[in-house]
Amino acid sequence: CSRPQKVCLCPFLPVRPLKVSTCLYIIQHPAEESRVLRTVPLLAACLPPDKCKILVGRRFNEDRYPELATVCRNPNTLILYPGAEATNLEEVAVMSSSPSVMIIIDGTWSQAKDIFYKNSLFRLPKQVQLKPSISSQYVIRTQPTNTCLSTLECAAVALSIMEKNKSIQETILHPLQALCSFQLQHGAQIHHSKEHLLKNGLYDKPMPKNKRKLRRMELLVNNIKI
What we know:
Elements lengths: L22 E6 L11 H7 L5 E5 L9 H8 L3 E4 L6 E2 H7 L5 E6 L2 H9 L8 E4 L21 H12 L3 H20 L8 H6 L11 H11 L5
Helix pairs in contact: 5-6
């Protein structure tokens, strides 16, 4: 896990990489590389190297990333990104029998949005989303809403659906749960979502002057999907 011995997470990782047929492509915003408490390294440690490929960058075109371009044109490739045009992954998984490739964007919500909309390659795969039925266990980092998940959590849920194996989700979440436990034991505080803080009058930062950002906060308070 590459962490100090005192907070080593190796005992919480699977003894052997999980056997999965689905291949993940993690498109990681460069800012994520410098974060100390990242979830993607834990995800990669749970899977075989050929089933979890990480590409770092903001812009991806066919000339610089021919392999990714080929993947995006594959009819069995899915991209996990919520929106009006996205199909619930459960519906897609029922109809799918062949091994799939799934693209997941790793970054803050604004970074992920920038990557998704400014790279035409990512509009080629079928767009899917997860049902907002679980709350994030990544409690040491603030999420926009109660149902926003970390990259590792998204991958864990998605793989369990695609592989039709609920235990995959439990196995991948195990090191995340241990990470949060370690951090809380060493002084970290539980981070409630921005939605929770706003609804309960606990948001202690200055409200944004930007009208678009202010509108997004109003939508969060009124429980309107953004």
